[in-house]
User: What shape does this take?
Amino acid sequence: MSQLRVKFLSSSTKAWRVVSDARTLQEYTFFSAARPGSSAVQNLGTVKVPTDMAPAWKTVDTTNKLWWKRANTQTPCWTRNEAAGQCTTLTYVWKNDGKKGSWWDGGTGYVHLAGLDPRSQHLVLHEADHFFMGRLYKGNAPYVTNCATHPMEKRTSATCALWEGFPDTVAAYAMGDRRYVYSDSSSVEFDKPTGWETGDQVEGRVVLHPCPHPSRHTV
Assistant: This one.
């Protein structure tokens, strides 16, 4: 070969990936600078992700934090519900469109991230945990009511509070803190529930009283 270059993909093996479109599932890619072909080991130096694609790679990196906490050492999958070779890939659909508003699609199992939202590792982990919970339920997410909007401090329903509160808890646990940080850098301190409504229908109250070791429930 007269020239060689390295291709980088926005994925981590087959466990998770970031794609630009839910139909084509095309991952983001870029290449290192071309170098003369040689059989010798070559140092590529510092390789930087193109600025417009950087949030895709930040999402890939952030997901490591959830992967490391999943407590499944029996298979290379997210949960031991799946055997090696049959793992479900966590797929993020992201576009650099400057928008906010992310969600997990229960039909496809994909996480949709708005353009600005990868700025928040808590938000990425929260949405990833919806996928994770879906895998814990073997692809059959629990039925949730009254959850179109879910202010953390307000009553919705017990099912909504659990469905949204558990990902808040896991995100904070994976990040090693007790808060939720939004993509605009504002945050909620779970230990300071001033003015919050009470009861198990309040998302933030579920976060305040989580299982002592969330990782024990991620198998």
